[in-house]
């Protein structure tokens, strides 16, 4: 999940397939897992969501907002923190910490430290976690980017692109397990990624492997009424928003396929600034990860140490009506996880209350007029807007690290964006 220092992007930031964003989607504020005429929520009066979902009376799972129906009403942002940044804490302690700090939810990475997806008693462990989440009032997204979870010698291997079909099937099995866990937890999405294109593999072959591998996972997600939210990851086959649209079209635009948007990755390599990426991604947005980052360097940074101006990003996110979690992702900062969890929530709340980001119920915070074009209609990519230059990074003094954080890795020289000077100190 965003920390492969040796991975190089497989294509220029605008995408290797000539795929452009649909006409008008930079201003498109439509959101939802289903269309406007979607069927009503499948929950019955006694709280059941069917054989693939949690039973409120059995697990005590509180019914969350229905994130599978569309809305254009500006929504209050709901912040979470990723457990991959709290690996030195027991899961029970990590969840308690986040609840005490005031987080709305958690990005739960399936790994051997917290919730082992390969454990023989996975179902019982999942039930215990569901009860704990409910008791704490935390929402959840299930994430699948754990290091070494399938292979003790390959950090994120095998992937969906592995040349060995048996190895690809192991990653598929992990994702199928993740869908079952997510359904039992009442999660709002399952996160995944493509993986790095193996050496000597033609891109067409890699894309074929990816679509083939995702098909059974999408079928399971559809049956569970859950979105599968794939993340564009620097250095991976699917690295950009343009690559996401290529996959979407290759799979014939399945309803269950959604997008995980990492705000830092937008800063790292997308041609649009992060707030415009949010607007462009809105129709497919199912999960959001957030951290600071610098242009052209894939390193997840604490807030204030990178270049992102967060108030416009959070304002754009709220305006889309996105109701899922916005999860802080700092996987290399577990050595000081409690400190960074507290610091991150303070920063996000301050940025969300910035004058450039009015509350969701404020009259001036209403959504812009959505473009009338079909979400899949081709059209020219929106022009790159002007963007303010970043303020000087703030200094953060965490507790003494037990292990050093890896040095930043410069991936490539991304295209420049026009910028204008910004008043010093305008970033919270």
From TrEMBL:
Keyword DNA damage found: no
Low complexity compositional bias, start-end: 362-410
Keywords, A to Z, come to: Endonuclease, Hydrolase, Nuclease
Q: Which InterPro entries match?
A: IolE/XylAMocC-like, Xyl_isomerase-like_sf, Xyl_isomerase-like_TIM-brl
Return the protein name. Answer: AP endonuclease, family 2
Q: Where is this region: Disordered?
A: 1-55, 352-428
Residues in Xylose isomerase-like TIM barrel domain copies: 97-350
Gene Ontology molecular functions:
endonuclease activity
Q: Does the keyword Hydrolase apply?
A: yes
């Amino acid at each position: 999940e965003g920390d492969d220092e040796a991975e190089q992007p497989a294509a220029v930031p605008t995408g290797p397939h000539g795929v452009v964003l649909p006409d008008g989607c930079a201003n498109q504020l439509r959101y939802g897992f289903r269309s406007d005429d979607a069927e009503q929520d499948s929950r019955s009066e006694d709280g059941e969501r069917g054989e693939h979902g949690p039973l409120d009376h059995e697990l005590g799972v509180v019914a969350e907002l229905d994130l599978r129906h569309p809305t254009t009403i500006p929504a209050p942002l709901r912040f979470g923190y990723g457990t991959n940044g709290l690996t030195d804490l027991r899961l029970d302690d990590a969840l308690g910490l986040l609840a005490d700090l005031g987080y709305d939810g958690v990005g739960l990475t399936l790994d051997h430290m917290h919730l082992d997806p390969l454990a023989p008693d996975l179902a019982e462990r999942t039930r215990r976690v569901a009860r704990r989440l409910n008791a704490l009032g935390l929402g959840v997204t299930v994430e699948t980017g754990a290091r070494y979870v399938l292979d003790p010698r390959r950090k994120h291997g095998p992937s969906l692109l592995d040349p060995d079909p048996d190895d690809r099937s192991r990653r598929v099995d992990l994702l199928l397990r993740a869908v079952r866990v997510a359904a039992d937890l009442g999660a709002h999405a399952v996160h995944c990624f493509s993986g790095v294109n193996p050496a000597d593999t033609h891109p067409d072959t890699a894309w074929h492997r990816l679509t083939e591998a995702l098909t059974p996972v999408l079928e399971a997600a559809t049956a569970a009424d859950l979105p599968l939210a794939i993340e564009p990851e620097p250095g991976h086959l699917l690295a950009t928003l343009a690559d996401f649209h290529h996959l979407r079209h290759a799979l014939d635009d399945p309803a269950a396929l959604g997008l995980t948007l990492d705000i830092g990755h937008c800063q790292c390599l997308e041609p649009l600034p992060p707030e415009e990426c949010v607007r462009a991604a809105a129709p497919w947005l199912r999960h959001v990860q957030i951290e600071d980052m610098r242009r052209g360097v894939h390193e997840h940074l604490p807030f204030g140490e990178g270049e992102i101006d967060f108030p416009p990003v959070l304002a754009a996110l709220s305006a889309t009506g996105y109701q899922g979690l916005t999860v802080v992702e700092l996987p290399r900062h577990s050595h000081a996880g409690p400190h960074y969890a507290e610091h991150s929530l303070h920063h996000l709340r301050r940025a969300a209350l910035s004058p450039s980001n009015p509350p969701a119920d404020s009259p001036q915070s209403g959504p812009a007029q959505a473009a009338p074009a079909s979400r899949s209609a081709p059209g020219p990519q929106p022009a790159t807007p002007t963007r303010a230059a970043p303020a000087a990074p703030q200094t953060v003094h965490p507790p003494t690290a037990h292990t050093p954080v890896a040095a930043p890795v410069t991936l490539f020289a991304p295209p420049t964006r026009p910028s204008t000077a910004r008043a010093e100190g305008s970033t919270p």
